[in-house]
Automatic annotation (TrEMBL):
P-type ATPase N-terminal domain segment(s): 177-224
Compositional bias per record (Basic residues), positions renumbered to this chain: 278-298
Enzyme class (EC, first level): translocase
PROSITE patterns in the cross-refs: ATPASE_E1_E2 (PS00154)
Name of this chain's protein: Phospholipid-transporting ATPase
Keyword line: ATP-binding, Lipid transport, Magnesium, Membrane, Metal-binding, Nucleotide-binding, Translocase, Transmembrane, Transmembrane helix, Transport
Lineage: Eukaryota, Fungi, Dikarya, Ascomycota, Pezizomycotina
TM stretches of this protein: 199-219, 225-244, 557-575, 587-606, 1117-1138, 1150-1169, 1199-1221, 1227-1246, 1253-1274, 1280-1300
Main location as per UniProt: membrane
Cofactors named for this entry: Mg(2+)
Record organism: Cladonia borealis
Length: 1323
């Protein structure tokens, strides 16, 4: 016999002491007579036996896994034994929350153990509801039996499902704290990681580490030279500037994240009315108990008993499945406050804030029902197509019954309508921000939840798998417990727990957008970092520019020169050293003296320059709205060699427009569409009476085309063309999956269209523009209206629909035309026409339509124009033909093996041959403004462009052609579905690309890309980076990021990634430079990017103008700062040699600090205002940008040129000063230092190409400051000598000898070999 101690918690005490009031030895039979020896309960009627005459022990008197006391071992527990006995249950019950935080609650007199824990298809053997116990009480495995969908019937969030954990979500209850908050975060640092990470990044650069060691060396007394602050203050200032910039950038990111996280959403708050009242009463009772603070024991006991009373009420009346009187409130909460289990209410064009499972969808309007009820019943009874799943067409209640906040209602009132009419339960979402696909996705609510009122949502439990980054996969279940009254007793005749599967079709992931004109109620299942979007996003990283690494390498060279110079000087002096000073101490002192060779002010100048560049970018009026989010890498914009771009929303607007049609003998485009409009008006005007009240006959494809004009002018050819145009327009108006809906905008009724593809909507809109409007569509009928007469002209019954698939590349529909007049309809006549319409890509439709001599040529012409072509055909079916097809199709649809292929084969054999070719349409995906010219300019600038998209192959090809990403002379080599092709196919594709790398563009799908990266990574990358353009389709966000990383690592070149959607965030963060475009539906890419722009064509100015200037200015600034530090070190070297190689400072304290700051910093820093060409020339000659990628502006060659100039000028300045003035005297110091300052100011003027007024101000102002500070330099200069003519002529002579030779050489070099910017200027 099972004992209670057999299901104790593992950490429970083994046994209590004697004399304790223990219930450990209670038999299960004493608790429930229904428990047999094998631990199962058997009832004759198969249901839970509710024996009211023999009351069971209340659950509150049993503590699972706890003992009731420890006797005298703990006198405090003994004092409160009675209360602790009951309070122990409260502790345990609070610990038995399921994954959504719901309390495990059951009725007092319900059986303790599950009568039969074995589930059969979601129903227990005894027919009892799991909600009464199994989902409320955690039982051991040997009792609970087989696990449920989540791996446990207990609702334990830690249960396993397959190879990962699942979560059980009870709607309307608090989730456990382990779920992450629903907050967007693009910040790089936390308050704890900021200093460690930033300091590590800073000291990973050699020159920062070098100065740190120099500063630390001043702690050692024998190495100390001058004041310690001379070395520590500049380092601290550099670190403060750099860390301050990082902190400000990250604070700005957090502020932008906060804005996104503050977006408000409507949430349904589901509360028990009686519990609200009880809480109010308890609040009064608690305030009364608190007034008795002097009686500690009494207050404690009262508080504990009050908690037990609350638990009793919960146990008795809060069982899962109890609906009682649920108060439904609509409250607005911020996105970051959403929790797992919350029910969110969304409307059209709202961004989905978290990963949701759709519970209910309903429209805000009453469906248009132009067909009588009897006809609807007739349609339903005769319908034999694919859409037989839901034949209930009850009208949808008006949304006026649904109040907005603040609102409270009971469950009986039902917040949203519980209508089940056609279309209800369905909604479309846009996923281009998630996966890059432009097609809208159809999402449906589970039939189990669609019919529920909002108050009944508390009976639901969602079982979902562990968080995953697979955006196209989801497996879960939804369970509905039976209703219960306030006492927890079931009110349903059927006590089974209903369950239904959940798939990807029932979900809406974060950052998708609701596209339908409908209201959706959905429950949150994943939040924050566990959403599909977040899991597909790589973590942000700190980025350092290539210029930083180049300067770091130059610094190492300078340090090596310093060390070599120090060793040489000590060796000349003698390795035995001087008395009181070892040789290695002398080497270290020389290293510190020459530390100015590696100027610490270099980082200060570069970081301040980056701030100026960022300011220029943000204040540029030609690119308004541009934001610099990472101000540490603006120079990288001038080094880009690979541009990886998203398609949807970046290059295109995701707005389709039908531009051209061809009907076999003539094509129509632009203004010629007016002729199409006249044909349509004439074709659907027959039978119209002047009496507006008189009904007109409905049109069918067999109706004669009657021209509006009469006489000889109406030729036979014109009638034939008119008839063909009418038939094509009619086919386009019927062959689609578009549903019209009406909504009020500014007091006017506006018709909008919903469909899975924007192409479909574009075609329907075009049909309306030429005179044939889609008035109504449901699952079974389509109604068309003439725009000119506002009369219904065509009405059809939908028999079968064959939706578009990526593999089939076509869409078909079988229709039966209504005949007669609008007031007297009939589709049951044996003579009713049945037609099969189909449209699709020309690659598949060519073999389906009848033989012709113009299709291939016309589709090729449209493709060259970048238009998406659709071939339209039709076929008339007799009633017998349709019945035969329907029988075969139904039989194939019930096949258990190869169902899809069997159904497709039936369609192919019965329908898809010898279709009448009606025409070809060309749809344009509208490009962003100036995309063509922008791509051409970037290509001329030497940038290789890759387009990475999640869209279809055909769509990407058309956009690549229309955007001029691929030129007319380039061949597009397409590689698709390599994983299912022979291995030789991949090798053949690589060999073909190697043979023509300059004239071939690659078009590859995600499947083939994965195959290449897995098996031919090096070969593929080595070939792909040479191609002028690469188009990758069906790419996941992870694949996009992998491509960016692969190009960076393989080529060592700078990669820029640009996108506008959440699916582009990983790619943007993986790139050297990430640019985000502020999209229509979201700012995820913009927030995560280094630079944010508003439209694609702004990128050209960002790169060609601002990027080029930033890089050239920083390169010149860096080399000049190195020159400034090197020249003073050369002076120090000559002085040390002249003073018997003693490690004494030439310029001490203020002279050393002032030289690098007050006396030279402003003029040198003014170089950030220089420019070699104006903006017009930079855009006219993008080749100027191309030469930057060679790195000639800052290279080893230019570096050593500056080193040579520094050695020459430093030697002349110090050597002549020592010759013309007494050695080691204040006069010599005053002469050499003055010449040094003048030399730097004039060298700045020599380097300026285009003068800015601030440059002149800084040079003149610095000169005035230096002259004005001379009277305060008496501790270093001989002031009396400074104001003499002897000082003046010496300074002038030394300065001329120092400056003239370098200037003459520079002028001669510019004349013989002028740089590119002088060539384009004509100088």
């Amino acid at each position: 016999m099972s004992r209670a101690h057999e299901y104790h918690q593992p950490n429970a005490p083994d046994s209590p002491n004697e004399g304790s009031d223990s219930d450990v030895e209670l038999d299960l039979e004493e608790l429930d007579p229904g428990v047999a020896q094998n631990g199962h309960v058997y009832y004759g009627d198969g249901r839970i036996k509710q024996d009211q005459s023999k009351r069971h022990i209340p659950l509150r008197n049993l503590r699972v896994g706890r003992t009731r006391g420890f006797g005298r071992q703990d006198r405090k527990r003994d004092i409160y034994d009675g209360e602790e006995d009951a309070h122990g249950l409260l502790d345990e019950t609070l610990g038995q929350r399921d994954s959504a935080g719901s309390l495990g609650t059951v009725e007092d007199d319900a059986p303790l153990l599950n009568p039969d824990a074995r589930r059969r298809s979601g129903v227990y053997a005894d027919g009892g509801p799991r909600g009464f116990l199994s989902s409320q009480l955690r039982l051991p495995d040997f009792i609970s039996g087989e696990s449920g969908p989540g791996g446990s019937v207990t609702g334990d969030s830690g249960a396993t499902q397959g190879n990962g954990t699942s979560r059980n979500i009870s709607i309307g209850q608090d989730p456990p704290p382990r779920f992450p908050p629903n907050a967007v975060s693009n910040a790089k640092y936390t308050i704890w990681s900021f200093l460690p990470r930033t300091l590590y990044n800073e000291f990973s650069f050699f020159f920062n580490l070098y100065f740190l060691l120099v500063a630390l060396s001043q702690i050692i007394k024998p190495l100390r030279i001058g004041y310690i602050s001379t070395y520590t203050v500049p380092l601290a200032f550099v670190l403060a500037v750099t860390l301050g910039k990082e902190a400000l950038d990250d604070i700005a990111r957090r502020r932008r994240d906060t804005e996104a996280n503050k977006e408000e959403y409507t949430v349904l708050r589901l509360r028990d009315y009686k519990k609200i009242k009880r809480n109010q009463g308890r609040g009064k009772r608690q305030s009364h108990l608190q007034s008795r603070k002097g009686h500690n024991r009494g207050a404690s006991k009262g508080a504990r008993l009050d908690a037990i009373e609350e638990e009793e009420a919960n146990l008795g009346g809060d069982a899962q499945g109890a609906t009682r009187s649920i108060v439904v409130d609509e409250i607005d909460i911020k996105s970051r406050d959403l929790k797992v289990g919350d029910v969110v209410k969304l409307g059209k064009d709202r961004r989905v804030p978290a990963d949701l499972v759709i519970l209910k969808s309903y429209t805000a309007e009453t469906s248009i029902t132009p067909i009588s009820l009897s006809e609807t019943q007739e349609v339903l009874s005769e319908h034999t197509g694919l859409l037989d799943e839901n034949n209930d067409d009850t009208p949808v209640p008006d949304s006026s019954a649904v109040e907005t906040k603040p609102r409270s209602s009971t469950a009986a009132e039902s917040l949203p309508p519980s209508a089940e009419s056609g279309g209800v339960g369905e909604t479309f979402i846009r996923t281009d921000q998630l996966d890059g696909e432009t097609d809208w996705k159809l999402r449906i609510a589970s039939p189990l939840t669609q019919s529920l009122d909002a108050g009944d949502f508390t009976r639901l439990k969602i079982v979902a798998g562990r968080p995953s980054k697979e955006v196209n996969e989801f497996v879960g279940t939804v369970e509905l417990a039976p209703k219960a009254d306030a006492a927890g007793n079931s009110t349903d005749t059927d006590l089974t727990v209903q369950s239904a599967p959940l798939s990807i079709d029932n979900t809406a992931w974060a950052n998708t957008v609701l596209a339908s004109n409908a209201t959706v109620l959905a429950v949150v299942v994943y939040t924050g970092a566990q959403t599909r979007q977040a899991l597909s996003t790589s973590p942000s990283r700190s980025k350092a520019g290539l210029l930083e690494h180049e300067i770091n390498n130059l610094t190492k060279i300078l340090c090596a020169l310093t060390l070599a110079l120090s060793v040489v000087l000590v060796a000349i002096r003698g390795i035995e050293g001087r008395p009181g000073q070892e040789w290695y101490v002398a080497v270290m002192r020389f290293l510190i003296l020459f530390s100015t060779i590696v100027p610490i002010s270099l980082r200060v100048n570069l970081d301040m320059g980056k701030t100026v560049y960022a300011r220029f970018i943000e204040r540029d009026r030609d690119i308004p709205g541009t934001v610099v989010r990472t101000s540490t890498i603006p120079e990288e914009l001038g080094r880009i060699e690979y541009l990886l771009s998203d398609k949807t929303g970046t290059l295109t607007q995701n707005e389709m427009d039908l531009k051209k049609i061809h009907v076999g003998t003539v094509s129509y485009a632009n203004e010629a569409m007016d002729e199409v409009r006249s044909y349509v008006r004439q074709g659907f005007s027959a039978g119209i009476s002047s009496d507006a009240t008189q009904s007109i006959s409905l049109f069918t494809p067999s109706s004669n085309y009657l021209s509006g004009s009469t006489g000889a002018s109406t030729t036979r050819t014109r009638r034939e063309i008119g008839s063909r145009v009418r038939d094509l327009v009619l086919a386009l108006a019927l062959c689609h999956n578009v549903t019209p809906s009406t909504e009020d905008q500014e007091g006017q009724s506006v018709t909008t269209y919903q469909a899975s593809s924007p192409d479909e909507i574009a075609i329907v809109r075009w049909a309306e523009s030429v005179g044939l409007r889609l008035l109504h569509r449901d699952r079974h009928t389509i109604t068309l209206q003439s725009v000119d007469t506002s009369r219904v002209v065509v009405r059809v019954k939908i028999l079968d629909v064959f939706p578009f698939t990526s593999a089939g590349k076509r869409m078909g529909i079988i229709l039966q035309y209504y005949q007669g007049t609008e007031s007297l309809l009939s589709s049951t006549d044996s003579a009713a026409e049945i037609w099969f319409y189909q449209k699709g890509a020309d690659t598949v439709m060519t073999s389906i339509v009848a033989a012709n001599d113009w299709l291939d040529e016309e589709t090729a012409n449209m493709a060259r124009e970048g238009l998406r072509t659709l071939v339209v055909g039709r076929k008339k079916l007799s009633k017998q033909q349709y019945q035969e097809f329907s029988a075969r199709y139904k039989q194939a649809s019930m096949s258990l093996q190869n169902r899809d292929s069997s159904m497709a084969q039936v369609i192919k054999d019965s329908l898809e041959h010898n279709l009448e070719l009606l025409g070809v349409t060309g749809v344009e995906d509208k490009l962003q403004k100036d995309v063509k010219s922008s791509l051409e300019l970037l290509r001329n600038a030497g940038i290789k462009i890759w387009m990475l998209t999640g869209d279809k192959v055909e769509t990407a090809r058309c956009v690549a052609i229309s955007a001029k990403l691929v030129s007319r002379t380039q061949y597009i080599h397409t590689v698709t579905q390599l994983s299912s092709a022979p291995e030789s196919a991949a090798l053949d594709a690589l060999s073909f690309l190697r043979s023509k790398p300059d004239s071939t563009a690659l078009l590859i799908d995600g499947d083939s890309l994965s195959h290449f990266l897995a098996y031919h990574r090096q070969d593929f990358v080595s070939v792909a980076v040479l191609l002028p353009a690469v188009i990758a389709c069906r790419c996941s966000p992870t694949q996009k990021a992998d491509i960016a990383t692969l190009i960076r690592k393989f080529t060592k070149k700078r990669v820029l990634c640009i996108g506008d959607g959440g699916n582009d965030v990983s790619m943007i963060q993986a790139a050297d430079v990430g640019v985000g475009i502020v999209g229509k539906e979201g700012r995820q890419a913009s927030l995560a990017a280094d630079f944010s722009i508003t439209t694609f064509h702004h990128l050209t100015k960002l790169l060609v103008w601002h990027g080029r200037n930033s890089y050239k200015r920083s390169a010149k600034l860096a080399q000049f700062v190195i020159h400034r530090g090197l020249i003073i070190s050369v002076c120090q070297t000559f002085y040390s040699i002249a003073t018997q190689i003693e490690p004494h400072a030439l310029y001490r304290d203020w002279l050393l600090v002032g030289y690098a700051t007050v006396y030279t910093m402003a003029p040198v820093f003014s170089l950030v205002l220089d420019k070699d060409v104006d903006e017009g020339l930079a855009n006219l000659y993008p080749e100027l940008y191309k030469e930057l990628t060679t790195g000639k502006s800052l290279s080893y060659r230019t570096f050593f040129v500056w080193v040579a100039v520094s050695i020459y000028q430093g030697g002349i300045i110090q050597g002549l000063s020592q010759i013309l003035v007494d050695l080691d005297s204040p006069r010599m110091v005053s002469v050499s230092f003055t010449v040094l300052v003048i030399n730097e100011l004039i060298m700045v003027a020599f380097e300026i190409v285009t003068w800015h007024w601030l440059m002149a101000v800084t040079i003149i102002g610095t000169t005035i400051i230096y002259v004005g500070s001379i009277p305060f330099l008496g501790g270093y200069f001989d002031l009396g000598y400074v104001w003499s003519w002897a000082f003046a002529w010496r300074v002038a002579a030394i300065s001329a000898i120092s400056l003239l030779p370098p200037y003459c050489i520079k002028v001669l070099r510019r004349t013989l070999n002028p740089p590119s910017y002088r060539k384009v200027q004509g100088l």
